[in-house]
Amino acid sequence: MKRETNLNNAALMARRHAAVPRGVGYSHEVFIARGENAEVWDVEGKRYVDFAGGIAVLNTGHRHPAIIAAVKAQLDLYTHTCFQVLAYEPYVELAERINAKAPGDFAKKTLFLTTGSEAVENAIKIARAYTKRSAVIAFTSAYHGRTLLTLGLTGKITPYKNGFGPFPEEIFRAKFPDALHGVSIDDSIASIELIFKNDVEASRVAAIIVEPVQGEGGFNVAPAEFLQRLRALCDQHGILLIADEIQTGAGRTGTWFAVEQSGVAPDMITMAKSMAGGFPISAVVGRAEVMDAPAPGGLGGTYAGSPMSCAAALAVLDIFEKENLLARSRQLGERLIASLKTMAAKNKCIADVRGLGAMVAIELCKGGDLHQPDADMTKRLCAEATKRGLILLSCGTYGNVIRILVPLTASDAIVDEGLAIIDAALTAVQAV
Ligand code: PMP
To answer: Are 418 and 406 in contact (CB under 8 A)?
Structure first.
């Protein structure tokens, strides 16, 4: 079938509204025609710098030539067998390489799935099978997915949870530390101790799941000391520690896994998104004895660890080594933070600039007052940036955080171009 060539965004939006349920939200009224590294072109030929990266999926950029070549080569061999039916080597090699990368001086094994939510679901299943306990502790402002179990773990009602309950039982919520808004590490640990007193005994808790930097929650960085104290608490009570690195992983924060920077070795880590540069695959890597708890047949999925995605993920690992992208992530982070701090000095609405490596965000508040989150200005800033040729994304419990997830492969010139648009858009939205 020949595709229409004279497409425009407004007409496509109208077709989308008629054909696709409104529950699939949208942040931009833009339909992409082509993407190349950190740039995209829409169906009307307009060019944009991409600071969203498909929500943390494109650390290696749009269509990295090495990924495209690896997937094309795989397409010529076989595209699907279902790993449980006919196994293939790229799945095993990818598991070996991720096992070698994950922190912890112990034997590891890796399971592949398709989506981030599915990785989290499986990590919880494995934790329950290993510990023979049922309860799970997650944190305020956490995001772990949209399936029913992971929605139970996710800590944001609107827009994710409205009308979808009841959620699975035995999920308890502790406070994520947030020094900026008055939640200390002590407060956070005390909130877990309180769960043990009020809600469930520690000996029935299978796992604590934590994002080393909260993604959807607002790029809140878990201090190293907090992760170390979580590790100690888990060890004290025989609870498994799961790091959800679906957004932080694959080098976004300057190390392959963000948790490495705390010196903590979790019992399991979930990953997805940038691990295969846009091809759907997710993973759970963990202690071999923990990963082996479910009996044969207890884990898997028809598309889990698809051959094309394994080929793409192996290419991503090679690209990181060849292009030294971990160092680039740290350097890019410094560039972003320095520029955003300059903007904060002249724009009172920026109440905070924060991040880890190249996972960087600004928090927008009315008059710079942390108690008055400015979701409206955040929305207007994203819309203004789109008009000026920059794809920006917001996040945060109060919808007042702008997050930057530009490909690590972007040149300094492109990054500076995007930052200049943020600067100009900030002035424009405040002049209104
Ligand atoms: N965990 C985290 C930390 C995430 O950021 C996300 C996606 N934003 C998920 C889980 C869910 O991943 P998916 O959308 O692929 O199911």
So the answer is: yes
Element (H, E) at 394: strand 393-395
Residue 142 CA, closest ligand 1 atom number: 3
23 Cβ contact partners less than 8 Å away, ≥ 6 residues apart = none
Q: pLDDT tens for residues 207-259? A: 999 999 999 999 999 999 999 999 999 999 999 999 999 999 999 999 999 99
Say how many C-beta atoms besides its own lie within 10 A of residue 5's C-beta.
7
User: How many whole angstroms from 214 Cα to the centroid of ligand 1?
Assistant: 11
The HSE-up count of residue 429 (CA atoms within 13 Å, CB side) is 26
2 pLDDT higher than 60 = no
Place of tokens 């497409």: 7
> Given ligand 1 and candidates 117, 176, 248, which is best to mutate, with the most ligand atoms within 8 Å of its CB?
117
Of all residues in the chain, the percent with pLDDT exceeding 90 is 97
Select from 344, 384, 392, 385 the least CA-distant residue to 368.
344
Atom of ligand 1 lying closest to residue 211 CA: 3
* Geometric angle at alpha carbon 137, from 134 and 140, rounded to 5°: 150
Please choose from 271, 273, 356, 393 the residue to mutate so as to test ligand 1's pocket, defined by most ligand atoms within 8 A of CB. Answer: 273
Rounded distance, CA 315 to CA 140, Å? 35
Per the CB < 8 A criterion, the answer to whether 171 and 100 are in contact is no
User: Taking a C-beta distance cutoff of 8 angstroms, is the pair 234, 240 a contact?
Assistant: yes
pLDDT digits (tens, 9 = 90+) for 12-61: 999 999 999 999 999 999 999 999 999 999 999 999 999 999 999 999 99
Q: How far apart are CA 58 and CA 268, in angstroms?
A: 23
* Predicted confidence (pLDDT) per residue in 322-359, tens digit: 999 999 999 999 999 999 999 999 999 999 999 999 99
For each of the domains in the chain, give its residue range(s) and CATH number, in order of start: 9-63+324-431 (3.90.1150.10), 68-322 (3.40.640.10)
Distance, CA 6 to ligand 1 centroid (Å)? 35
Q: Which residues line ligand 1 (CB under 6 A)?
A: 55, 115-117, 120, 143-145, 211, 215-216, 244, 246-247, 272
Average pLDDT of the chain, as a whole number:
97
